[in-house]
Every structure is written in C-alpha cells, then in structure tokens.
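Dear support,

I submitted the protein below through the web form. The confirmation email said the job was done, but the results page showed an empty box. After a refresh the structure appeared. I'm attaching both so you can tell me whether what I see now is the final result or a partial one.
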Amino acid sequence: MRLLLLLLVSQLCTAAALADTRVFVSLVGTLLEAEITAVSGDSVTLKRASDQQSLVVSRRTLCKEDGAYIARWAAQHAEQPPATAPATAGTSAPAQKFRLFCQILPARNNRSSGDTDQRVFECTYSFSLSNQEVTRDLRGARGLALILGKNAAESNGDLIVLQKEEFDISIPAKSKMVHITQPVRLTYNVGVNAPIAGVKSYGYVLIIRDAAGALLHVEANPDTSARYIREILSITEVPCMVDREFRPNPRAELPLGYISF
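What the results page shows now:
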C-alpha cells in the first residue's frame, strides 16, 4: 500500500513539473518543447524538455502566440528575481546579423485584348540581392518568393497565391545575385462594357533563410504580409486561396480561367 502511495505521489509531481511545458514555434517553423525559466527584456530562457538544457532565445524569433504566452508568464512571475542565464557551451546565442540588401523590381506588361474591355497583365519580379559584408560569404542560403493576386471584383476579399518559388542563394562578400520569378499571366475585365471580373496582381513576399534555417531577411508588398511568415512557410499547394492572414481557404473557388503560366 505504501509503495502504491509513493508511486501515485511521484506521478502527480511529474505531471505538475510538466504543467508549464509548451511547444514553442519559431518564425521559420522549428519546434521546441520547453519550459520558461526567466524573461529579461527581449530574451527568454527556456529549459528544453528533452535534456533539461537551458537556452536563451530572442522573443522576436518566436511566433506571435508564443510572444503572448511569454508576456503572460512574465506578468505572473514579476515578483520573482530573474534567473541568471547559464554561460555554457550549449547555450544558444542570438543569431548574428548579416548585412543583406534587397532591391525588388517588378517587370510588368499590361495590354488590352483586341477591341474588348479585357486586359492581360503579365507579372514577374526581379529580386536583386546584395551581400554587403566585407569578408563574410553567404553560402547555402535559401530564398522563397511568394507571388500574390486578388479577385478583380473583390478588393478586400481572399488572396490568391499564384506562385511559391524556392531558390538557392550563394553570394560572395561584396557581391550580388539576381533571381527573376517565372512570369504569370493574369486576365481581367475593366468593367466598361462588361462586369468587373478576373484576377489582378496584389504583391509579393520574399523570405531568406541561412543554411541553418535562421531568418535573414523578409520583405513584402504590402508590408503587412511580412507578419505571417509561419503561415506562408506552411503553404504547400499552389495556386491556392488564402485569407488576409494567409490561412488556406479550401472552400473558396479558385479562378483558374483567368490565370496562365
């Protein structure tokens, strides 16, 4: 009987110890099951569940749901003195910044289709990437370009992910490279003699990660699209319909008749 009681107490203690464990999600989609032990400014100290090792992570590298959870935890533990971050060889240091400059040039060709009100819009984007580091080469990085459209008749409706291109990035110090997306042709009516219909261009998102998967650069037009990196990385099938927060909407009808490649 005593042995059963000790076993029950042990199980309850174990459950309590794991109560604050959470699966944290980074902006690049990596997962980490851990427990918060301290919050200091922009940094949060996490104790990894798999080996109890402490890691110091920048809050800005985690998804917005984790950011809200960390803020609640910090408010609830405001009376406790912050724990000193361990200075061990296994402690993760903040990612070192890389001076990477990006210039985006849209290459667009808009023309009418005969004597009708129909317009054909051919859209590509040219991403000129410049490594501004003096001695550091950028090797093994990956770029992701998302090309977006929208229903011509619904200015505030769902978005259309027209293309999702991934490409290799390798730039020596003080050099540059250019990536041009594949052209996509969009057709729409201007609404003079016929109702407005078709697909128009909406913008792009460019995400660049280094060889380890750490985020190096994000650029978007409109710039609000840059908030949804995690959702964008999870998109697998294109073209597809998504809402303004890049959540897939499989019930929406994809206007394939107005899109060609």
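Response: this is the final, complete result; the empty box was a page-load delay. Residues 1-18, 80-95 have pLDDT under 50 and may be disordered.
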